[in-house]
Amino acid sequence: MITVHLKKLRQRIEISSDEERVIRDSVAEIRRIPADQLVIRAGEELSSSLMLLDGWMARSKDLAEGERQVTQLHVAGDFADLHGFTLKRLDDDIATLSDCRVAVVPHERIRDITERYPRLARAFWFSTNVDAAIQRELALSLGQRSAISRMAHLFCELYVRLNIVERASHDSYEFPLTQRELSECLGLTVVHANRTLQELRRRGLVELQSRHLTIRNRLGLEGVAEFNPNYLYLDEHRL
Amino acid sequence: MITVHLKKLRQRIEISSDEERVIRDSVAEIRRIPADQLVIRAGEELSSSLMLLDGWMARSKDLAEGERQVTQLHVAGDFADLHGFTLKRLDDDIATLSDCRVAVVPHERIRDITERYPRLARAFWFSTNVDAAIQRELALSLGQRSAISRMAHLFCELYVRLNIVERASHDSYEFPLTQRELSECLGLTVVHANRTLQELRRRGLVELQSRHLTIRNRLGLEGVAEFNPNYLYLDEHRL
DNA sequence: GCGGCGCTGTAACCTAGGTTAGCCGCAAAT
DNA sequence: ATTTGCGGCTAACCTAGGTTACAGCGCCGC
């Protein structure tokens, strides 16, 4: 069931029952993918896109010496490689971080939908544009925020995004990343990611144990992060 | 004349004369904007987008203490805030870095075009997706590349992008940014940006004087940058 | 013609974060 | 029941890049 994705869409725009049916019918197949699998390699030719129904995925790019930068985290409700519809191949790898359930949507169906339902076409376009906005905020983090601010910012962002799809409650959520993976999101070494996490704990801002994150002081955390959710475009949109 | 933009589009896809006319007719007005003007402030409501015909623009985000990160540079042929069409407001500021000529395209015309010319709709969508790919490569730079590699990478990327629209020749192009602005693109301080530039000069890789950049050793520069233009999606696309 | 200011360039010093190395605890494999 | 390997954590040390401060220079306004 792709109800998560609709939930996320409905956060920003109205979806008629007709449009809902069209989206549901676009799914060719539901697949389960175990954790830590490389799902799409950069450069591969693509003919379908993946809507993430459950679990976490990461998009990342590597340098020659093996340094890896995660360019985007995806959670339930995200259309992980929708940009592949126009690009035909990706410039980053996509891998699962946890066991995942995905809906496979063939590109020809996306093409059909965009040609016949201009409003949905704009909704899809909008969604890749929000992904780009998230990447810009990441650039701001990587370029200008300190390690602690960067990590705090990531935790704030994920809280908001998971909340929309009802994967968070009581300022807390499942966080399946290892510290190595977390460090790759933040442009830090594992060692420093650990130090930074300790510091967030010491200040009473977050707890993280056995893959479960709890925000102990949300205002405090948002403060050190300079978090402002504007870039997530959560307000209602007239498309 | 929006010939530059068409030149850039034609690099990737075929444009029929009919489609060309539609694009030309979408322009409501041509404006000149002097250097160092804030053109669009993050959050403003938008009703048109700007196609850059000549000159350079930068999109940037600031932190409270004034640290600024440039999230994207735009040159002739770029549709600077096309993402504003679906987002309705931007999350970053747009400013001119040099005197600019821009074509103003009202959103209602973009909407018309996308509804009546699905191929052009995909071309516009494609173009915002390539912008996002450039931002991902920037994240890789900011997160993982050293200062010298980052700067080299930027110079390589700009060479390729300017070449497409015939703004570069003989491995050299006009580069109107001050060192402060350059440093804001790279997540460095001005002082270190200067040191890094000196090092690139010392190694005989680039020259930069009076706002003119010359690549002295392209292979060498691409080497230190680990530059691979895949992420610019310059190959022909079937949309 | 000169005063000021923005840009480039340097030097001296400092620190956030990287590097290397190793420990502990736990869970899966044998 | 023991080994092996991975993830979390820490300590000691190091360095890329940040900070502060200033000098030279060209250009613009008066």
What's the count of strands of chain A? 11
Structural class of chain A: alpha+beta
Can you write the helix and strand succession of chain A as a string? HHEEEEEHEEHHHEEHHEEH
- State the low-pLDDT regions of chain A, or none: none
Strand order of the largest sheet of chain A: 2-6-4-5
Question: Main β-sheet of chain A, in a few words?
Answer: 4 strands, antiparallel
Please give a structural write-up.
The structure is a homodimer of 239-residue chains. Chain A is α+β, with helices and mostly antiparallel strands and 239 residues long. Helices cover 45% and strands 22% of the residues of chain A. Chain A has nine helices and eleven strands. Chain A has helices at residues 3-12, 17-25, 84-87, 107-116, 118-144, 147-164, 179-186, 190-202, 218-225, and strands spanning 29-33, 38-40, 48-54, 57-62, 68-74, 93-96, 100-106, 168-169, 172-174, 206-209, 212-215. Chain A has a four-stranded antiparallel beta sheet. The longest helix of chain A is centred in the middle third of the chain and has 27 residues, at 118-144. The first copy, chain A, binds a DNA duplex (30 and 30 nucleotides) through residues 146-147, 178-180, 188-192, 194-198.
